[in-house]
Amino acid sequence: MSKVSASKIKPIDAEMLEHLVASENGRDVLEALTLMIERAGLGIGDRLPPEIEIAKKLNVGRSKVREALIAWQNMGIVTRNKKAGTRLAAEVSSNDLHMPLTLKLEAESLLRTHAVRRPLEIEVVRVACRNVTEQQGRVILARATELIAVYEAGEDWRTADHGFHITIYEASGNPLFEQLIRQIQDGFNAIYEAPFGRAHLGQATIPLHLPLAKAIVAGEVKIAIAYMEQIMDMVEAEVREVMEEQS
Amino acid sequence: MSKVSASKIKPIDAEMLEHLVASENGRDVLEALTLMIERAGLGIGDRLPPEIEIAKKLNVGRSKVREALIAWQNMGIVTRNKKAGTRLAAEVSSNDLHMPLTLKLEAESLLRTHAVRRPLEIEVVRVACRNVTEQQGRVILARATELIAVYEAGEDWRTADHGFHITIYEASGNPLFEQLIRQIQDGFNAIYEAPFGRAHLGQATIPLHLPLAKAIVAGEVKIAIAYMEQIMDMVEAEVREVMEEQS
DNA sequence: AATCAACATAATGTATGACATTAAATATAT
DNA sequence: ATATATTTAATGTCATACATTATGTTGATT
Q1: One Pfam family this chain carries (chains A, B) (predicted)?
Q2: What does the pLDDT read at residue B233?
Q3: Which residues is B87 bridged to in the sheet?
Q4: Element of type H or E holding A79
Q5: Regarding predicted confidence, which is higher, A38 or B27?
Q6: Which residues touch strand D (CB under 7 A)?
Q7: Which of A16, A165, A220, B129 could form an SS bridge with A215, CB 3.0 to 4.6 Å?
Q8: For residue A135, what pLDDT band results from cuts at 50, 70 and 90?
C-alpha cells in the first residue's frame, strides 16, 4: 500500500464520466461508483473525482455520495483528505457487488475455508447456549420446526438451512458472528451453482437442525456442540467428495 | 444483555438528554453518543432519540449525526427504520470507542478468539507464499526490515507488529483476510490497555518477523507456516498467563 | 539559488431547511 | 373482529451556503 507513488494521479474527466455512467441511473451509488472505477481502470492510489462531480454525474445529491464514500472509508476501501480528495486504498470490483465481502475461492481452497468456518460456528453454539433466554428459546424451536416443514413441503433446502443458522447467530446475541460467517460462507455459494453443480451439498444436515436447536434451548452445551461438529463434519466430507470427483 | 425484550422502549426525554451531554460539547459525535447511551443505561433493542433531537442536544448538524449513525449501522451496532427510528443492535461502551468493530470479549473468551485467528493467519501465509511476486517480495523484505528498525529505535512495538502483519495480508492478494483478521484482532486491543494492562503482549514475536518474511519470499510454505505457528503459539501462551494471573 | 512565510485554492467538513418516502399507529368501514 | 384507508413520526434525499484545512504558489529574505 505504501509502495504506490502518491504522485500518480489519474483523475476522471467530465466527458469520460458522463459516458461511463449516463445509462446506469437508478442504481445504487456504491454500485455505480464501483462500476465507474472498474471501467475507468482505477487502481490503488488513484484519485476519484470530487464528491460534487460524482453527485452531478450520478444524478444524486452530494450527501448521498458522501455517505457512500464515508462507508467505504470506514471499510478501509478509500482514504479521504481535504484538499487531496478521495483515493482508492483497495481494489474494488463489480464481482464483489452482491457478495461484498467475498472470499474468492477456487474449489481447492474450500476445505481450508471450511476449516475457518467450523470453529466460528461452534463458538456461536457455545455462546448461544450460554445466552439464550426462555423467550428466545421458544422462538428458536418454533422457527426450526417451521423451517423443516417448509423444507419438507418441497422448498429449496437452502432456505431452511440458511434460516436455521441465522437463527442461531441471532440467539448468540453477538451480531459480529453473523457478519464473519456470512463473509466466509458466501464463498461456498459458488459450489452450489455451475459448472459442477452440487446443489445438494449440505442438504443431509437438515435432520440435525431440530435436535441441535433443542440442545441449545436446554443449555446443553456439550451436546449442542457435538451436533454442530457433526454437521460441520458432514459438510466437510461432502466437500472432499466433490474435490476428488473433480480430479 | 440479550435479555432485553424488543418491545421495551425506553426513549430519552429532552431534559435527560440536556443534562447528560450539556458539558461534553466539542467532543466527537460518536463519542458523545456512546457516553449518552452508556449513562442512560440503554441496552440492545432500546431506542435512540430521533436524529434531529440528538443533533439539537449535541449542538451539531443533523448531517453529522446521520453520518455517525450510518457508520454504526454499517458496523451492525444499530438498526435504522423509517418510522421506528434507530435502535441498538449491540452493546456499546465507552471502552470500545477506539475499536469500532470490537468483539466484546471477556478475558475468558480471548483464547477462543485466538483459536479463530490462528487458522486465518496461517492461511494467509500459505496464500502469500503461493501468490507472492518478485516485486512484492522485495517490498515485503524492505518493509519488514524497516519496521524492525523503527521498533529498535524505540517506537511502540505495536506499530511494527501491525505493519508487518498487514504487509503479509497484502501479499496474499486477498483483501478479505485483512478485514476478517482485523475484526477479530480488534477485540484483542482490550488486553493491551487497562485495567490489567498487558502492553507487552506479543512483543516477543517481533524477532520472528524477518525470518518469516524471508521464508514467504522464498516460497518456502512449510517453513513460513511453522514460523507463523510459532508466533501464534507465543501469543496464546501469553494470553494464558494473563488469564491465570487474573484468577 | 534555497529556504521559509504568507496567501490562494480546491477539496472535504458542517449546518440548515425543505421536501420525499416509508412503515408504524390509528381510525374507519365491512 | 378483520380488513382497509388515513395519519404521522421518523428516516431518506437534495440543495445551498459556509467553515476548515491540506496543498500549491507566490514572494520575500537570506
Answers
A1: FCD
A2: 87
A3: B47, B79
A4: strand A78-81
A5: A38
A6: A 55, 59-64, 67, 81-84; B 48, 50-52, 62-63, 66, 70, 80-83, 85-86
A7: A220
A8: confident
